[in-house]
Automatic annotation (TrEMBL):
Name recorded for this polypeptide: Periplasmic nitrate reductase, electron transfer subunit
Lineage, opening ranks: Bacteria, Pseudomonadati, Pseudomonadota, Gammaproteobacteria, Lysobacterales
GO BP: anaerobic respiration
Subcellular locations according to the entry: Periplasm
Job of this protein: Electron transfer subunit of the periplasmic nitrate reductase complex NapAB. Receives electrons from the membrane-anchored tetraheme c-type NapC protein and transfers these to NapA subunit, thus allowing electron flow between membrane and periplasm. Essential for periplasmic nitrate reduction with nitrate as the terminal electron acceptor.
Chain segments annotated as coiled-coil in the UniProt record: none
Chief place of localization: periplasm
Cleaved signal peptide residues: 1-24
UniProt xrefs under Gene3D superfamilies: Flavocytochrome C3, Chain A (1.10.1130.10)
Keyword field contains Transport: yes
Length: 178
């Protein structure tokens, strides 16, 4: 029994390893898959990688760019108008060096409901003290704890792309005029 299985294994090995060599020597081998050189690199837009990307200040993608200097954060400390309902208010001051992690939230030093009046800062909205079932909590809800998920500082940077956003009041006003 063992001799039969060994013989079958040898026959299979010969069929896989030796038979293609014999056929190739006789000239009866299949052509097989055609090997082609790799295609040129393609960017996400489908253009060759040497195309110009306007967000890179018209420098080819294959060239490393020196980054622009960081924009200056505006420090106006005044409430900005919101562009749409439920828009999170922007942060009107620099937050460089603020620690916001699991153990500490520097924003709450001034914006906690208990200390906001002392620092003349707007208190955190009551919605930040509600859990997802609309139950009020004693502390800020964990889902609202990391402020910069929604709130951002404003800078003096020029826009990278054109923006034609108009708030709803402006849209309604222009429709009335027509």
């Amino acid at each position: 029994m063992r001799l039969i299985s060994t013989t079958r294994a040898l026959a299979a090995l010969l069929a896989v390893a030796v038979l293609p060599l014999l056929l190739a020597a006789c000239g009866e081998r299949d052509a097989g898959p055609e090997i082609r050189p790799p295609a040129p690199p393609v960017s996400a837009r489908g253009n060759p990688a040497h195309d110009i990307d306007p967000l890179r200040r018209n420098v080819p993608i294959t060239t490393e760019v020196t980054p622009l200097p960081l924009a200056n954060v505006e420090n106006f400390d005044m409430t900005r108008q919101r562009a749409y309902p439920m828009q999170p208010p922007t942060i009107p001051h620099s937050i460089d060096g603020y620690q916001v992690d699991l153990n500490s939230n520097r924003c709450m030093l001034c914006h906690a409901r208990s200390t906001a009046a002392d620092f003349q800062a707007p208190p955190v909205s009551v919605t930040h003290y509600m859990d997802r079932d609309d139950q009020f909590l004693a502390e800020v809800s964990p889902r609202r704890y990391f402020c910069v998920q929604c709130h951002v500082t404003q800078t003096d940077a020029q826009p990278l792309v054109a923006n034609g956003f108009r708030d709803i009041d402006e849209v309604l006003r222009s429709e009335r005029m027509q």
